[in-house]
Design a protein that fits this description.
heterodimer, A: 188 residues, 60% helix, flat, B: alpha+beta, two-stranded antiparallel ribbon, 9 strands
Chain lengths: 188, 155
């Protein structure tokens, strides 16, 4: 096991150490995501191979840690076969670690495009959300959040139209959510 | 501990798998034989596998070895152009005295016996499988100790 302070010092001073660290995480977590989605959305490696127009041994290799050096095109082909999207995003080390710690192959699930209501019918989803807010206003009781609410709220918070105070200094990680009514108001 | 018709039933199943080091041999291999990239990948692999309920779904869960007397299986990962193998057994073969503390249940525990790498059917070091077999037998016969390998959530 790596002593944390030694490792942190290496990560701060050595580009090779940072590259090795990032690569190690991706070499484990990308195959794990592929396996999770294959099992949940497709079935066998042979079936995924057919969907992605690849050979089964290649799929097998892609599910083994470090066996394949992925390029973005390969990931795009897999995402298209799974009928899901793909994010390739630069993040802080803390965000990468948080993602790793929270990732669970057993729980990892992504909505396919044909089940992705937020994407297929964003207007209907907004209307349902507005109804929910009116209900909350009338009763004073917050209703239970669901996937749609979380998804839409997150999207709105990420939107450049959302005016948030500039973050300065070391304020810790950004908090999700935000005031739902304020988020909705400018467009309702 | 619950009992059912004199049969002992373990009281609880742990949330996560834990990985145990045979007499510190794995830590020795990790420190001396693995590059930084391989060390990072090994750490990430154990962290990920610990959360996956069914060990057969672990990325890198390899085959049980044939032609050996102990139920040894491989955990595979590839780093710095080497196909590493960690030879392992499940806790069911381990004698009670091998654990550092008396324990009711040994479910979801994997014991890491020896590390090596593999190319075209050749293991390096060449005696890795024999070593793993000897170590598994020592655990079965209560002649060795295992130590938990902590999973670092801050790295």
């Amino acid at each position: 096991m790596s002593d944390r302070s030694t490792k942190l010092s290496k990560l701060q001073t050595s580009k090779e150490s940072r590259a090795a660290y990032i690569k190690a995480k991706l070499n484990v977590l990308v195959p794990s995501q592929i396996r999770a989605l294959r099992l949940k959305l497709i079935g066998t490696q042979k079936e995924l191979a057919a969907a992605a127009e690849m050979k089964q041994p290649r799929i097998s290799a892609m599910e083994r840690p470090g066996a394949v050096q992925f390029n973005v095109d390969t990931l795009v082909r897999l995402a298209a076969a799974f009928k899901v999207g793909l994010l390739v995003k630069f993040v802080s080390f803390s965000e990468m670690l948080r993602w790793e710690n929270e990732f669970s192959q057993d729980d990892f699930a992504v909505a396919r495009i044909d089940e992705d209501t937020s994407f297929l019918a964003p207007v209907a989803t907004r209307a349902a959300l507005a109804t929910r807010v009116e209900f909350e206003d009338a009763t004073g009781q917050p209703s239970q959040s669901d996937e749609t609410t979380r998804s839409l709220t997150a999207k709105r918070c990420a939107s450049p139209a959302m005016k948030t105070p500039a973050r300065t200094g070391n304020q810790g990680p950004p908090q999700g959510g935000g005031n739902l009514r304020e988020i909705l108001r400018p467009e309702t | 501990m619950l009992t059912d018709n004199k049969k002992l039933i373990p009281s609880e199943v742990p949330d996560h798998w834990t990985f145990w080091d045979y007499e510190g041999a794995i830590e020795n291999w990790y420190q001396n034989d693995l590059s930084e990239e391989a060390q990072d990948q090994f750490d990430a692999l154990l962290k990920n596998c610990a959360k996956i309920e069914n060990h057969q779904q672990w990325p890198g869960f390899g085959k049980f070895l044939k032609g050996v007397k102990e139920p040894i299986w491989e955990l595979e990962f590839r780093a710095d152009k080497r196909a590493y193998r960690v030879l392992c057994v499940f806790a069911s073969i381990v004698a009670p005295g091998c654990w550092p503390r008396a324990t009711e249940s040994t479910r979801k525990r994997a014991i890491l016996l020896a590390g090596c790498y593999h190319k075209q059917g050749v293991y390096t070091p060449a005696n890795a499988i024999n070593t793993a077999e000897t170590r598994a037998r020592a655990l079965r016969e209560d002649k060795a100790k295992v130590y938990e390998r902590p999973i670092n959530q801050t790295l």
